[in-house]
Amino acid sequence: MVKILIMDDEPGLRNIVFNMLKPLGYPLFTAEDGHQAIEIAKRELPDLAMLDMRVPDMDGLEALAELRKINPKIKAIMLSGFGDVESAINALKKGANEYISKPFKVDEVLAAVHKAIGIINQEGGGAVAAPQAIPVPQQKVAIPEPKRAAPPPAPIPRPRGEDQPGASIGIPKKVVTMALFAGLLAILVGGGFFAWKKGLIGGASSETFTIPYNNLSGVSIIRPYLWITDSLTGNIYKHNRDASLSIDSIYKTANTQPSGITSDGQTIWTCSAAKQRIYKHKMDNALTIEAIFATASNPSSIYYDSGYLWVLDTAASKIYKHKTDENLSPQGEYSSPVANPCGMFRNGEYFYIGDAKAGKISKVSVSDFAVSEVYAVPNFTTGKYKMANITWDGKNIWISAENAGKIIRIPLTSLQSVEF
User: Residue 292: enclosing H or E segment and its boundaries?
Assistant: First the structure.
């Protein structure tokens, strides 16, 4: 069985790569630096190593040289945040099989791993072929012989003079009408219950997704993807909105502690409460920084509403309005209508603002921030999860749970209002 070693000094990225490869069924081992990778290699003799180019104690190529002393046939895939051609050529010259730049695509990683495993299998060395799908035996289904038609029932004797339709078996027309009405009502009620169970009308329920990292902060729909920031590792994840919220890409930027993310359609904006900074990024494969703005606030989240950039300060309970010009010109400062604002979105003439501590969402007027309704959010209001940020896709609210590795999706129409 092919053994795979993953070396990366970032716990979040190690966990991501581990979870990408876990479904393949091979033994996986992780290391946070070169020395740990070498110790694991001495014990487990891995066939394939996925090595970060930059770790604190040695670079990936130095680690590869040491690993080859243990297993001369080991294959290597280099992972690097420094996507320059010179580094790629140097890695290949020194024996790497593949070179993948961060942010890397999930399908690129899997393709590189499959290619390397194919080479290992061809060379032998005790490796076995990749796991194959288990065929499902076909079941023979007995086809019943057609039933013979039953003879028609004997006609019911009718009194003379009662040959009119509806009176042939002596049932009054009123009774027939009431029976039809009762049947129609049963169909409507039953269909309504079925639709409610399926979430087609007012009773739609929420859904919880588990993702392979914990320090969730900002969340935003940047179509067609769901983007999430990790405040500890500094990674920005682009998720497909599929059944498992699979990861499409992972980005590393100059904003090492992102607390919020949004987009104006042309650029991506992030903020950092810890560094009191707002960052403007190109929408390229590296999220290249175009501008950095210092702020007097602690921007915990950020939102663009097709006109202005709104910045929320959870600690100070403030909301700031900016133009997205070259100076990020301030346009207003407001006391937040919720005590600990952690995210917002606009729907018509209302903003919806999340409260980090209360676990509730408030509906407020765009014109004067007056609160019209407050909604309880299951699992957040009760304290099971702490609300980190919220966003909206036009139908569902997406909520990131702080330090829980959870994303909750809940239909806007299913929120239950509470007294305030």
Answer: strand 289-294
Interacting residues of 50 by C-beta distance below 8 A, sequence separation 6+: 4, 5, 6, 7, 8, 17, 76, 77, 79, 113
Sign of the alpha-carbon torsion through 328, 332, 334, 337: negative
Q: Which tokens go with 337?
A: 């209508």
- Residues ≥6 apart with Cβ < 8 Å to 22: 28
Whether the model clears a pTM of 0.85, i.e. scores above it, the answer is no
CA distance 359 to 259: 18
Nearest to 200 by CA among 347, 417, 413: 413
Domain boundaries, the chain: 4-123, 207-418
Tokens (6 digits) for 255 = 């904003």
Class of the domain covering 4-123: alpha beta
Domain 207-418 bears CATH identifier 2.120.10.30: yes
pLDDT digits (tens, 9 = 90+) for 243-256: 999 999 888 888 98
Condensed to tens digits (0 to 9), the pLDDT of residues 176-192 reads: 456 555 555 554 445 44
Contact between residue 56 and residue 28 where contact means Cβ atoms under 8 Å apart: no
State the Cα angle at 90 between 85 and 91, rounded to 5°. 100
